[in-house]
């Protein structure tokens, strides 16, 4: 199994080659997609905060809110975040629930309950379990953290609707598969499911841009 973290273009390209070998159906998909974005992100509290801030809002809105949020601090870290009152943080555009989630994450890190630097050394199931113990952090958020902040090579966020649609499309299904079925259908892509996730998001964007494609 390839253990390189997906933290460079060279590793991503190598994993896409491995993916095509696992599933020859994806050769044409890779060709159609051109350059697949790496989407590498910072780890630790800052990386998790960026994921939480960006949930359920448009890319443009997430970018604007993040800019205001990060601008409140010299360093985006748990200790500094906790020094700011709720009204000041929410004034950057965060909802009450997102503020509460970040408080839980920051307090867990400060108390030692959550050790971000240890997550990379854990099996993904254990890392996800540790993160989802925190109120407000669900499986999708935990998987996105492992995928982009840690560069885990074999994570596929099967609860993501765009990914479900693309897995259904690749497999010629009439109905969009649910999370459990999506996980089962993507086992063939292990140990390259991190590259597969990036490829499917890119393919979703490509098909959306093509006239006449309805997803």
Automatic annotation (TrEMBL):
SUPFAM superfamilies: DNA-glycosylase. It catalyses: Hydrolysis of alkylated DNA, releasing 3-methyladenine, 3-methylguanine, 7-methylguanine and 7-methyladenine. The keyword DNA repair applies. The keyword DNA damage applies. One of its GO terms (biological process) is base-excision repair, AP site formation. Its EC number is 3.2.2.21. It comes from the Bacteria. GO terms for molecular function: alkylated DNA binding; DNA-3-methyladenine glycosylase activity; DNA-7-methylguanine glycosylase activity. GO terms for cellular component: cytoplasm; protein-DNA complex. Keywords: DNA damage, DNA repair. Pfam families: HhH-GPD. Residues 53-205 form the HhH-GPD domain. SMART domains: ENDO3c. This is DNA-3-methyladenine glycosylase II.
